[in-house]
Amino acid sequence: MAERAASSCPPGCGHESSVKSGFFGWIAEDLRCAVERDPAATSKFSVFTTYSGLHALWAHHFEHWLWKKGLKGLARFLAQVSRFFTGVEIHPGAVIGRRVFIDHGMGVVIGETSVVGDDVTIYHGVTLGGTSLEKVKRHPTLESCVVVGAGAKILGDIVIGAHSRIGANSVVVKDVPPQSVVVGVPGQIIRRKVSLDGRLTDLDHGSLPDALANNLKDLMARLDVIEEKLEMHSHHISILHLDDNDFWVLEDGSDYSI
Description:
Layout: H1 23-37, H2 44-50, H3 52-68, H4 72-86, E1 89-90, E2 95-96, E3 101-102, E4 109-110, E5 115-116, E6 121-122, E7 127-129, E8 141-142, E9 147-148, E10 153-155, E11 159-160, E12 165-166, E13 171-172, E14 180-183, E15 188-191, H5 211-229, E16 240-242, E17 248-250
Parallel strand pairs: 1-4, 2-5, 3-6, 4-7, 5-8, 6-9, 7-10, 8-11, 9-12, 10-13, 12-14
Antiparallel strand pairs: 14-15, 16-17
Helix pairs in contact: 3-4
């Protein structure tokens, strides 16, 4: 197990992935990055003993080593044992880079031909799934420093570019350029103006633009300008519209019941 899967991963955010370190060195890296990325972490000891996402990753490194050595049956069996105890399912064939952090972990599924680069952060409920019945590369590749929000589904042999952020519950089915934000179902790709370098991880999940709502508001504003120029004042008032705070408002006095 002296060689880790990271050697097959996409380029890292820095050049540290080219430095080979032992298994305990990898554990130390993972503990350090967990403390950096999770404000709830109180100490490295608590992370070491209670973070099931890291436990699943550490088990996967051994299972992946067995897989490469041809002991695929044993690797699959141990992966199922790890899944039972951690709630995280990682196929032994998946390639996982360095300093990957799976936060909370429960419900994460990473398929056989998935490739996860260095410094990636994955939240609970994420699926890296396949879309082909052929024995080919059919799962996603996440380049370095990608953040995948809770419940997101990334499907097929696609590439998520470095420093991209996938919004919670998004469904991504096509390639995402580096430095992008993806929101919605299906995922709407929004290129970012801000360039992120190095190993910087963007965890600001509150900054997820609503592409459809913003374009709808712009279209309505332009229509108002056209009607004003043509001196056409429509008597029609939309029953459901966006207010200044981007909240949908019902104007007919009714309400939704649950």
